[in-house]
Write a structure and sequence with these properties.
Strand content: 5-15%
Number of domains: 2
Order of helices and strands: EHHEHEHEHEHEHEEHHHEEHEHHEH
CATH topology of the largest domain: Aspartate Aminotransferase, domain 2
Number of strands: 12
Oligomer: single chain
Bound molecules: pyridoxal-5'-phosphate
CATH class of the largest domain: Alpha Beta
């Protein structure tokens, strides 16, 4: 059996989540906009999903917009807020380590006259709140900083950045919390965010379902015209089963967070100790302010793509950094921004654990990963093996 250590890319659908979704794919199939009983059942499921997600982040149900995933939620929030603010200003402040769903969306807005200012980060990938404040001018309408980085796991000082942003009237603060997901507390009042995005497949929900939190009173220009769904903020018949699945997965993950986090941290530390014992390896991202499940490193004189292929042959699913750049010859913009030269950034490896990761898997990975990394560093080729001794699937 292969060991899956790529939960930052996606997670398996949880059984309880599938069970919650199934009625909305079968007998409760109605269109939530229909006035009859079938429609009302679907509407109840959808309304409940809004409530469930909202209550876990300290928001109101009407402040949640379900979308077709994290990328769409980011496009809706960022483009929507930018266009709505255009009359007041054209300057958007962001960090150099955002996911492409943010970076490329903002780059696209530059074509329409928006000015995008990218803040540098330190060696650990952290944004300095002082830099955020210094970058805000009277033309700034939006600041967008991710909560936790998908490649190196670093957590940003979001509440402190929000405080700085809100020293300036009328500037909105958007947070991509897709990787942070339920790993950290996401109370929008404590954090002080105006827009926040989530994606269900990062926490054992279905793929292709996301949510945008939009603080009540925040104006956005709608990006998908059509019907009046989602309170006129996203046209199109809603994915009721998906929304129910996302809400169920989120609720379970939030309720279990303390226990899950404790276990994941212990497991990650065990694996980290084993892998970093290999000469020429270095942890990337912040040593403490990082997601509990996230281990990222650089193995000097190796190639991350070759490394993940060798690990795959040994039955371990890992990634270079981000699922979107796997197989690409480009080095990570995140590691570049953190000051790593190209030749070091090429040896990036990400091992991300999940709720379903077992101690036995971590023990097996703690033997296999260091062996493969060491072999790659000395130019030896990895040999296919069966880390759990259960037969290679
Ligand atoms: C930080 C971050 N933002 C955005 C996304 C995009 O989310 P989705 O896959 O739901 O479109 C991801 C997914 O990897 C991510 O990690």
């Amino acid at each position: 059996m292969a060991i899956y250590l790529d939960h930052a890319a996606t997670t398996p659908l949880r059984r309880e989540v599938l069970d919650a979704m199934l009625p909305y794919l079968t007998e409760n199939f109605g269109n939530p906009s229909s006035g009859h009983g079938f429609g009302r059942k679907a509407r109840a499921g959808l309304d409940g999903a809004h409530e469930m997600v909202a209550s876990r982040i300290g928001a109101e149900a009407r402040e949640i917009v379900f979308t077709s995933g994290g990328t769409e939620a980011l496009n809706l929030g960022l483009k929507g807020a930018a266009w709505a603010g255009k009359a007041r200003g054209h300057r958007i402040v962001t960090s150099a380590v955002e996911h492409h769903a943010v970076g490329h969306t903002l780059r696209y807005l530059e074509k329409f006259g928006f000015e995008v200012v990218e803040l540098t980060v330190d060696r650990y990938g952290r944004v300095d709140p002082d830099d955020v404040e210094a970058a805000i001018t009277d033309k700034t309408i939006l600041v967008s900083v991710m909560y936790a980085n998908n490649e190196v796991g670093t957590i940003q000082p979001i509440a402190e950045i929000a405080r700085r942003v809100h020293n300036h009237r009328g500037v909105l603060f958007a947070v991509d919390a897709i990787q942070a997901g339920p790993h950290v507390d996401l109370d929008v009042e404590d954090l002080g965010v105006d827009l926040m995005t989530l994606s269900a497949h990062k926490f054992e929900g279905p793929k292709g379902v996301g949510a945008l939190y939009l603080r009540h009173g925040t104006h956005i220009v709608v990006q998908q015209q059509g019907g009046a769904q989602e309170r006129h903020r996203r046209g199109g018949t809603e994915n009721v089963a998906g929304a129910v699945g996302m809400a169920t997965a989120f609720e379970l993950a939030c309720a279990e967070r303390p226990e899950t986090t404790r276990r994941l941290r212990r497991q990650r530390e065990r694996l980290q100790k084993a892998v970093l014992a290999v000469d020429g390896t270095e942890l990337t991202g912040h040593p403490k302010e990082r997601l509990a499940n996230h281990l990222s490193l650089i193995a000097r004189d190796t190639d991350g793509n070759a490394l993940t292929m060798s690990l795959d042959l040994e039955g371990i699913a890992a990634s270079v950094g981000s699922a979107c750049t796997t197989g690409s010859t480009e080095v990570s913009h995140v590691l570049t921004a953190m000051g790593y030269p190209d030749e070091e950034a090429r040896g990036a490896l990400r091992l991300s654990l999940g709720r379903t990761t077992t101690d036995a898997e971590i023990e097996a990975a703690s033997a296999t990963v260091p062996r493969v990394v060491a072999m790659m560093r000395t130019g030896q080729v990895a040999v296919a093996a069966d880390p759990l001794g259960q037969g290679v699937a």
